[in-house]
């Protein structure tokens, strides 16, 4: 069991022992990192979550990655938040994914969308840059950003080679709480070393990183002992993350809330498998431990 999952379950058990929880009040069954109101389909499918956000540019002069943009909740009353670094794909800039920044941040996360050192960086380089961006957030970002971050609750994501980079980062840093590769591309097919809870999202009609040779074998290679999910979007091309995609965002936020925040309120949006005409296939290690 992941250490933070254990903490969440201990908190729930303690509350049950004290009679603080009843079947009529499932929203109380939460761990210490719960942020925001009880989740609903409409909340997760909206263009923004419950938190207002601010954003700042990140200079290209930072060390280890090419700068970018950081988004964070304005609220300081609920404690610190988890943080996620996201990489664009081959030849792309952060602007191609920028809709994700405020959307994820508005659910209670600090988000850094990175620019890569060059547009042609390969997945292993993008993985290192994602980790450098997380280190910058925790150690060197402006105090208004740094003070909002819980350094023990960090995650990575990315599109295409950036998605392949998020697999690299998860493999290199098992202390991460979650990874969400989007239409990931990588020449490495075996990720048996990954212990980080990983949700892979692929597109059914992707011809650049076909799911049969990328997303699916990536998912299958991650050990069954690691929490993992595979979501395939019906009819989606390789470029589905570059425009607003409600199904992707809903699942991504739910995964981050469940594993970065250990927020058990989001478990029903992942287990049992979500049903939607937008979903071609869904696999998961349900029930999550």
Which helices and strands, and how do they pair?
Elements: H1 3-17, H2 41-45, E1 53-58, E2 68-73, E3 81-87, H3 100-105, E4 109-114, H4 123-139, H5 143-146, E5 149-159, H6 161-172, E6 178-182, E7 198-203, H7 215-221, E8 228-233, H8 246-259, E9 279-284
Parallel strand pairs: 3-4, 3-5, 5-6, 6-7, 7-8
Antiparallel strand pairs: 1-2, 2-4, 8-9
Please provide a written account of the structure:
It is an enzyme of class 3 (hydrolase). This protein has helices at 3-17, 41-45, 100-105, 123-139, 143-146, 161-172, 215-221, 246-259; strands spanning 53-58, 68-73, 81-87, 109-114, 149-159, 178-182, 198-203, 228-233, 279-284. The protein is an alpha/beta fold. It has 2 domains: 1-32, no CATH class; 40-284, Alpha/Beta hydrolase fold, catalytic domain (Rossmann fold, 3-Layer(aba) Sandwich). Strand 7 (198-203), helix 7 and strand 8 form a beta-alpha-beta unit. Helix 4 (123-139) packs across helix 6. The protein is globular and about 45 Å long.
- What is the straight-line distance between the termini? 6 Å
Strand order of the biggest β-sheet: 1-2-4-3-5-6-7-8-9
Shape: globular
Parts with pLDDT < 50 across at least 5 consecutive residues: 5-29
Q: What characterizes the major β-sheet?
A: 9 strands, mixed
Q: Give the radius of gyration.
A: 18 Å
**Tally of contiguous helical segments:** 8
Descriptors:
28% helix, alpha/beta, 9-stranded mixed β-sheet, 2 domains, Rossmann fold, single chain, 289 residues, 9 strands, 8 helices
Give a quick summary of the entry.
The chain has 289 residues and is an alpha/beta fold.
